Each structure stands twice: as structure tokens, then as C-alpha cells.
Amino acid sequence: MTLDDLFLLTLKDIYFAERQILAALPKMAKAAQSDQLKQAFIAHREETEGQVERLQAVFEALGKRAQGTSCEGIKGIIEECEELLDGVKESSPVRDAGLIACGQAVEHYEIARYGALIAWSTAAGKGDVVALLQSNLDQEKKADTLLTRLSNSINSVAATAA
Ligand SMILES: [Fe+2]
Ligand SMILES: [Fe+2]
């Protein structure tokens, strides 16, 4: 297996993952109590649509068909989030604290994947591909930072909730 093969497999993995995230974000927005958190999930869903398009452009640049491959990692993260939130009362501020932790687990997964893809395409001298992937990575990092910022106030409220 070459580095190009490894790249393509990982690209298929994140392509699948982004589409799973596209489906999960509206549910997370619906579950959020805080308006700011709700808006953050809705806005990131819109960004994710653009990310899927950029990934399609990466496949195209490589002369490959855009195709996902089942990503057990993201499925596991999303499943665990659902399990975690299952036991939390709908009106509880603890729910938002849990949603932020889940959202950040997703962002960190994406950041790890894009980090590797960017390193590999940089090494291979594929500047056009690097630029597309870097745009996605920048958005994931921004989303992660926003969740950290929102967690400051949300966690303090959750800490005193019964
Ligand atoms: Fe994403
Ligand atoms: Fe993301």
C-alpha cells in the first residue's frame, strides 16, 4: 500500500463521516436548550455542506469518484453521544454540557483526520488538494473553539443544576 492509497482510504472515511455529521447536527441543534448552542450547531451544519462539496472537489482533483467508506469511528462517537444524552432530562442544563462534549468529540475526530490528510498531501506536493482540506480544517477548529467558549457559561449553570 502506498501513501496515496492511505490518503484515498482516509479521504473516503472522512467523506462518510462528514455525511453522518450532516445528519447528526440537526438532532443536536434540536436537543440543545441554549439558543447560542442551537445556533452554533445549525451554523456548523451549513458549513458541513460546504465541506462535503470540498471533499468532492478533492476526489475530482485526484481523478477519483467521490465515494465513502463506512467509518466506525464516527458512528461510535455519535452512538455514544446518543447513549450519554439518553439518561439526561430534556429540560436539564446538564444536557447542553453533554452536547458540547459530544460536539467536541466529533470536531476532534475531524481535526485528526484532516491533519493527517493535509500532512500527506503536502508531502506529495498536491497544493490544490491541501488548500481544500485546509479550509475544512479551519472550520473544524473554529467550531471547536466556539464550543469551548460556549461551555464556559453552560458548564457553570450545569454545575449547580439538580
Ligand atoms: Fe466537518
Ligand atoms: Fe465539524
Account of the protein in words:
The protein is mainly alpha-helical and 162 residues long. It has five helices and no strands. The chain is elongated and about 55 Å long. The mean pLDDT is 96.
Distance between the first and last residues' Cα: 54 Å
Q: What would the principal axes of the Cα set say about the shape?
A: elongated
Beta content:
under 5%
> Uncertain runs with pLDDT below 50, 5 residues or more?
none
Helix-residue proportion: over 70%
Bound small molecules, deduplicated: fe (ii) ion
Helix-strand sequence: HHHHH
Count of discrete alpha- or pi-helical segments spanning 4 or more residues: 5
Q: Any chance you could write out the topology, listing elements then pairs?
A:
Layout: H1 3-31, H2 35-61, H3 72-86, H4 94-123, H5 127-159
In short:
The chain is mainly alpha-helical and 162 residues long. It is built from five helices and no strands. The protein binds fe (ii) ion (2 copies).
Key features?
mainly alpha, 83% helix, 0% strand, elongated, binds fe (ii) ion
